Request: fold
Amino acid sequence: MKKIGVAILGLGVVGGGTYQILEKHREFYQKTQNVDIEVVSVLEMNRARTESLGVPEEKIAANIAEVVCNPDVNVIVECIGGTAAAKEYTLAALNVGRTVVTSNKELYAKYSHELERAAQRHNAGLFFEASCVGGVPIIRTLLDGLQGNRISSLMGIINGTTNYILTKMTCAGMSYEAALAEAKKLGYAEADPSSDVEGFDAAYKLSILSSLAFHTKVPFSKVFREGITNVSEEDILDGKQLGYVLKLLAIGKNTDAGIEVRVHPTFVRADHPLASVSDGFNAVFVEGDSVGEVMLYGRGAGSLPTGSAIVSDIIYAATHTEIRYSTFKNGEEAEKDVNFVEDFMSAYYLRLSVSDEPGVLAKIASVLGKYHVSIVEMIQREKGDGKASIVLVTHATHEFAIKNAVEKINSTEIANVESVLRVVS
Amino acid sequence: MKKIGVAILGLGVVGGGTYQILEKHREFYQKTQNVDIEVVSVLEMNRARTESLGVPEEKIAANIAEVVCNPDVNVIVECIGGTAAAKEYTLAALNVGRTVVTSNKELYAKYSHELERAAQRHNAGLFFEASCVGGVPIIRTLLDGLQGNRISSLMGIINGTTNYILTKMTCAGMSYEAALAEAKKLGYAEADPSSDVEGFDAAYKLSILSSLAFHTKVPFSKVFREGITNVSEEDILDGKQLGYVLKLLAIGKNTDAGIEVRVHPTFVRADHPLASVSDGFNAVFVEGDSVGEVMLYGRGAGSLPTGSAIVSDIIYAATHTEIRYSTFKNGEEAEKDVNFVEDFMSAYYLRLSVSDEPGVLAKIASVLGKYHVSIVEMIQREKGDGKASIVLVTHATHEFAIKNAVEKINSTEIANVESVLRVVS
Reply:
């Protein structure tokens, strides 16, 4: 039976979960996978963590050198997070030919080229299933399940924190602030929630998933990103009235015009499958030319679900004899000189505050018409003080057209656009 | 670049789709997978088929010997169906060390041991992703994505034909006969639909998926099977009134008591994710001890979706250097002496025709009570002629208890049980 020695860097939420799974299932993997996986080393300075997990003293390494030089270590699991020590240690491990399994989306989205080059040079494996959508095996699905397809689009809810907050705002009528506070209390949101609520986390993941799906590096910097910090209860209620639910969607498309990647709060119709993906759950739709639409759903974060993805990578590395060190099957990007579409097409939701006087609506419609924006549906209601609120949804149009139209409307004195949100029907 | 010669046995719906995908994407796979896949031989006697697909004359083999002896053939795709020629040809291919990719659930469910032994003996690969749930990569997910989990249950809609029929009965109010006729007209159902409507097809798939999920051979013969041929419009309407939708579910469980595998029409709550899986779509829930609940959704059948799964297997075989020839990672069953649970637990829906007279309900409740069956909800309505209809849903109870209770009720003169259906809440 093959013996695999594992080292875990960082025993926080994900590293701790990985440790627990490997300890619990060692015999199970011997029986079912024909491989003996033992955690032989951990790098974790917080003694409370190592003690609560029951890590034997002799397995606690003093520093990274001790881990990477340990001849019993075959696979190093990076669960430190961030891009400082995580990057340094990952490179140190790859540079001595150790296979690395990481859950670090930021590290992988930003430095995949550098990591892949190091892995390739030193014949080391590099796996990152846990970096995207927690326990849902979306990366394996793209690489090994749908690889016969030309994939035209990805669309999904890939951040659990924002989905929890939006679910609470939608279903419990909470304000953004109250929902965020509850998410923090329950451990869904970190003390500094900006990576989640500003959409960075989803953008890292979209960069990784789009690179795999579209067979070309999709840099993080190319992802259009808008978070949920400006989402108001009013928008959520107005959307509900029109039959929509607000979700932070990540959308990737590969069309003749180029690649389009964006993360933003989006209204989806209440009967769309993504509308019912609630709380910490995630879901991703993939559209392939042969398979049609496929959807994967599951827990996008958490100790054991993400640990499940890490352990899957460890077993994959142990039971597949070829070495995988690149995002791309053939070890390099298949296509170059990609165009990234900035002026993408979408339907839009606009909420305007207007003077409650005759002719206002005609003027707004006229401005929108000049930018070839046409209206699908509209609600108007009194706000008092001579003001009214207009909420409208447009047909699909160009992002730049909406931006220009909104600027034009705001330059008049009759109306002010208070919200612009994208709509997927 | 690695060169892979493919032979396709049978150019029907699935074989034809596979041929089309491989022809269309040869260059795409060179670029993205670093492998050159060429269809070098087909075995198909129907000239209309080979001509409509544009298969060159010189690639059409005269017989199976010509295919398996062709030194340019590395992978043989079996799309014949049934278990006669399909089994003979598959064994012939494996016996000369050719990798076989099959979409044949009946063949695999019934003869996996024999096929796996032949593959192992001759160092040949054996792949069967296309045998279950069409284009949805459920087998890869179980083997390579969730393999770190102890899987406790599988539950899903894994037959498109019956799902189409039940969707039409539920949403369009059609009778079973009318829905079946439409399914035949649209190509969803075969001329002899018994494999689908009697639940055989789903039972083959459940046997395969449960074997993988639970790491032990789950013989087809152990699958409890009930088809949809006796489903009435009345039941569907009564269920709707109680908030349920009827689906043909495949359910596999691995508990301390043993393994439980069953295929039967089942009421699911209208807000359950499976309730909205309509027409030809399939979906499978998998519950793992670390990952929690994961769901995969997509097209469960059809030329290109199933072709997508076959092509995925071909690429997998070509790009992974280890040979996989068994359902089980370690090449043999991990556990033996499994108990199969026959007296499983479920909630039940009963529809009874009763004499419309005082005390009847008390008598029925009393009989159910004797068998420890308790009632969750109930509807009673007049039918005229001194008869009434009672529809009730029970708490979870034992299958044998319900059978005994129904027998007892039917032995009285006051009531007759007209339908017994299982319920998942």
The mean pLDDT of chain A is 94. Chain A touches chain B through 58 residues (CB under 8 Å). Chain A is about 35% helix and 30% strand.
